[in-house]
Amino acid sequence: MVNKRYYFEGSPSFKKRFYYLILGVGTIYTSTLLTIYNLTHINYSSFMSYLFLFVHAIWYVIIFNHAVTLMRLYYYRDLPYQEISNQKNLPTITLATVFYKEPDEVIEQTVQVLRKIDYPKNKLKIVAVEDLDGKESARKYFEQLKSEGLNLEYVTRNNRRGYRGGALNEVLKQTDTKYLVVLDIDHMPLPHILKRLAAYAESNPQYDVIMFPQRFRNWNTNSITLASHVGYVFDYEVSRKGKSVTNSAFCVGTNWIAKVESIKKAGGFDENSIVEDMATSMKLWHPYGLKIGLANEVLACGLVPDTLRKFRKQQFRWANGAFDMFKTYLKNFLNFSFFQKFDYIFFIMWYLVGISSIVSQFFPLSTVLGFNFLVVTDFYEYLFIVIALTILQVMLFALPLVASGYNLAATLKSQSVGLLIAETYTKALISSLIGRKIPFVITPKAAKKQSMLKLIWESKLIVFLLAVNILVILFCLADLSLTSLVTMFWSAYNSSWCISALYNISLDILSSDRRNKLVKVKNEICTTYFNKAVLH
Fold this sequence. Notes:
This protein is α/β, with parallel strands linked by helices. Helix content is 55%, strand content 9%. The chain has helices at 14-39, 47-72, 104-114, 139-147, 163-173, 193-203, 223-244, 260-265, 276-288, 308-324, 326-331, 338-349, 353-360, 363-368, 379-403, 408-420, 422-433, 452-458, 460-478, 482-506, 512-516, 529-535, and strands spanning 6-7, 81-82, 93-100, 124-131, 151-157, 179-182, 188-189, 209-211, 215-216, 256-259, 292-294, 300-302. α4 (139-147) links the parallel β4 (124-131) and β5. It starts with 5 loop residues before the first strand and ends with a helix. Mean pLDDT is 88; it is low at 1-9 and 512-518.
């Protein structure tokens, strides 16, 4: 018998939805006012003015999309579901994972958790696809599940055709169930995951694909994992929620349930991109008309990169793949809805923050060197308009995370990590522009300690930018004028982000207890309940 009660897990109240609406309107107003002021206070005879306009245009598009997404949150509602109490009514599900060169300890832990999933064995099929490439197969770990009576299909591939997309298409060949659930090998599911996802899917048949949030059990390892964790929270609490209202959020590579029939009809998974999730949604699923939603409930706990090098490797692949998708975007432009056109270009443009962040650091230096492109007639006018609006814009960007339960200090410090990977995004842009093909490279997940000296060396660009801006400040102090005063404040603003970025990674030498005090976590299921109830 089916429980008739409908559940709304944390559906936002009218007060919170109205708060997001006001934030969105306020963000557009602030950013537009700042843009108008800058456009009317630039010396267009200087070539630097056009570089400044290029950088400002990138930021404006990104902030405008963010603001519109916030306003869409006013219409967002959590998906309801009916619990399916009678096991005879549960649908058949394939739980799939694909992997390549993963550490044995990660695989072994996942297999340990898979055997604790609460779902009828006659309605569950587990499919694992492993790309070998000379590595010894991890089949022995999954064979344990087969010996315990679970329906298991284990596929190995000696070629990496299509990378992850090709592996997922192998999954489809083995799938004869109603639904498909995909998890990365490091995302350990909670015992009730399939019953809950079945309830979401059966209660919301209008959706072909339903995602659920990614959360991480190593979020508090160091500043890199904290920043990455906060980024994912922002993605799911703000970006994907808002974009799901207009069916313009692409389906990420892990943590989702889908109707097998729907994704087969849409063409399966794209095999020509290193970002198969974005490519699949852009080239196949959205043009075919599939509807992608979001269930606001944590049901699995994964791992984020725990070193700057791993983080950069992950972000380089994502950025390079996104830039390569621009031609695909233009080719499929007419097949998108209005908001899909709007949001897909944002997904691509987001990674331009790398080159924008670096170039912005050199604007004060260009003024000192005589390439003055700003027209400033009154310091107090500049102070109360440009400086005040810039700071307000940064605060407005952070406030959605504060509304989600994170303190402002941790949010701002996590944002500064963006400067640490700015050069990675820039390298990805150059790589895409010159047409360099890069292979699909996995993000290492095994924990690894890293020395502070190594972290600082890997952050040498930030150290250099900080040194440049400090020199500019010293130069301006030696020759005070209206222009030098404005330039000095600009350099101080730039320096504050550099210092924050370097301070952020310096937290890695502190104890975890000290770090944990810097962030107020809304849902600690991955570090408390999960570890106790699942791993032990």
